[in-house]
Design goal:
With 333 residues, the chain is mainly alpha-helical. Helices cover 51% and strands 4% of the residues.
Length: 333
């Protein structure tokens, strides 16, 4: 990229002629599947700060435990399907998404607390744009996100009813402590695996034109864009929770699966590489991988924990060399 193609923004960041900024480090995958690797490297990645669990999966787990202990109806009530306890779960999930996603949106887009520092796209969310409901990208995204919360809650209600009636395979902490902890640690990998394949599915042209197009109206993404999907896509997306129909699980596993699936998109679609507070404090997010998917549509269908994109040839690491390969592939007859 020549100097004529770049400019320096108010934060000293180099942006190209389209106003796009990218971090100097390319997108990488977690070291679990690297070869050769060592247990020390994997352990540092998994348990380090920042790492795989800290901060984001740790935050999701903490939210899950609080919701499970204090904001979930008693199991005895859930033996019979009723609107009362189902609406309690729906309200709890609306509040969770509203507070979590709303807090990210408030800091990054309403208050613009860090300006455009570490923001991939220089533009803010669209207004007066007929592509979106209410001609406003944020209002559109909030509406479709709440449709997603309804779908998530329906999955959760059905699974809770199954647990309450001993109709699902159960594995508790007291009887199977090793499996309880291991399945909790494996949950993000299951989600990564599931997301890659359902994402490839909804890019199948008939499904893309009728369903997934709605999500991809968001090229310049924000926290509320993550769950802004067609209802059919929500059903496919939250189908990751159906794993608990066959794998012995505790309801806490099921809730962690759902919470991570519902809250994670706000982080991966925030549009920023880091959350920055003042001059020194920052929380790394490194979600360039999924931003590039919205930028180019045909790359990076998965996430960084499981390198499926690398294995199946759909990986873009954000470097100029990858841009050149992408352009060459698109122009190849």
């Amino acid at each position: 990229m020549s100097n004529d193609d770049t400019n320096i923004d108010e934060h000293g960041q180099k942006r190209d002629r389209r106003g796009e900024w990218r971090p100097e480090r390319p997108v990488g995958f977690m070291p679990l599947f690297d070869w050769p690797t060592t247990p020390k490297i994997v352990a540092k990645w998994f348990f380090g700060v920042p790492g795989f669990l800290v901060p984001w999966y740790g935050v999701y787990l903490l939210i899950t435990v609080i919701a499970y202990l204090f904001f979930t109806p008693e199991m005895a009530r859930m033996q019979v399907l009723s609107a009362g306890w189902a609406l309690e779960i729906l309200l709890r999930n609306v509040v969770m998404v509203g507070l979590f996603t709303g807090a990210l949106h408030l800091w990054l887009y309403r208050l613009r607390g860090q300006g455009r520092k570490r923001k991939y796209n220089a533009n803010w969310m669209a207004t007066n744009d007929k592509r979106f409901l209410f001609r406003d990208q944020v209002y559109d995204n909030v509406f479709w996100s709440m449709v997603g919360v309804l779908v998530w809650s329906l999955f959760e209600v059905g699974l809770w009813w199954g647990y309450a009636n001993n109709a699902l395979p159960f594995s508790g902490l007291a009887a199977n402590p090793v499996w309880f902890v291991l399945w909790m640690l494996l949950m993000p990998f299951w989600r990564n695996f599931h997301f890659y394949w359902i994402h490839r599915l909804i890019h199948w042209p008939p499904l893309y034109r009728t369903v997934h197009y709605l999500h991809h109206k968001n090229v310049n993404v924000g926290p509320w864009s993550g769950m802004a999907m067609h209802p059919v896509e929500h059903v496919i997306y939250f189908s990751c929770m159906l794993i608990h129909l066959i794998v012995p699980s505790h309801p806490l596993h099921m809730m962690f699966n759902g919470v991570t699936t519902a809250l994670g998109p706000a982080v991966s679609h925030s549009g920023f590489d880091e959350l920055v507070f003042g001059d020194a404090a920052a929380i790394r997010k490194e979600k360039l991988m999924h931003y590039l998917h919205h930028r180019y549509h045909t790359v990076n269908f998965g996430e960084s924990a499981v390198p499926l994109d690398k294995w199946f040839g759909s990986f873009h690491d954000g470097t100029p060399e990858a841009d050149a390969r992408f352009r060459a592939a698109r122009t190849r007859p």
